[in-house]
Design a protein that fits this description.
Elements: E1 9-12, H1 19-30, E2 34-36, H2 37-45, H3 49-56, H4 58-75, E3 79-81, H5 90-101, E4 105-110, H6 113-123, H7 133-151, E5 154-157, H8 163-171
Parallel strand pairs: 1-3, 1-4, 2-3, 4-5
Helix pairs in contact: 1-8, 2-4, 3-4, 4-5, 6-7
Bound molecules: shikimate-3-phosphate.
Length: 174
């Protein structure tokens, strides 16, 4: 399914790490398709993610998120950026295991924590950061970082890099 002739990669990482921005640039550089899971989910649910959380809650969001990921992995070649919390469920972890077994790269985009935290706070629209956004981000980072390291088969540090330089670095690793 994935090969050097038809590269494909899933990008995971914390909120604010730049998964969407870098993923889009990588796909552009390599002239391959790009899908962002959050955008695909919003398209499917017909509302914003914060509105969905408010009305239906996180467990229902995770169910739809996993459905969208399963469908996209099965149908879409190229670069696919996931929402920050997606790799935390067993169902998505299993999907990513299968993807890796088929030659796919699961790439953990590791931004400097202070940079990603600030970007996530300033960007807004993230229900998982409701309340004290920095404290919530840090608590999630501590929970998620070890899981991301296990789930990924490629780790890329983007500390201090512009999105364009980060994309070039990623390009050479997938
Ligand atoms: C979430 C991250 C968001 C989005 C949703 C939940 C999380 O995506 O999927 O708000 O649990 O970390 P980004 O990582 O693109 O902000």
């Amino acid at each position: 399914m994935c090969s050097s002739a038809a590269p494909c990669a899933v990008i995971i990482g914390m909120m604010g790490a730049g998964k969407t921005r870098v993923g889009r640039e990588v796909a552009h550089l390599m002239d391959i398709p790009f899908v962002d899971a959050d955008i695909a989910i919003e398209h499917q649910i017909g509302m914003t993610i914060p509105e969905f959380f408010e009305q239906f809650g996180e467990p229902e969001f995770r169910r739809i998120e996993a459905d969208v990921i399963e469908h996209t992995l099965a149908t879409h070649p190229g670069v696919f950026s996931l929402g920050g919390g997606a790799p935390m469920t067993e169902r998505v972890q299993q999907l990513l295991e299968t993807y890796k077994a088929q030659g796919g790269k699961v790439l953990y985009l590791m931004a400097a924590p202070e940079e990603a935290m600030e970007r996530a706070r300033r960007g807004g629209g993230r229900p998982m950061l409701n309340g004290d956004a920095d404290a919530r981000w840090m608590a999630l980072y501590e929970q998620r970082d070890p899981v991301f390291r296990q789930v990924a088969n490629v780790l890329v540090s983007t500390h201090g890099l512009t999105p364009t330089i980060a994309a070039k670095k990623v390009q050479h690793m997938i």
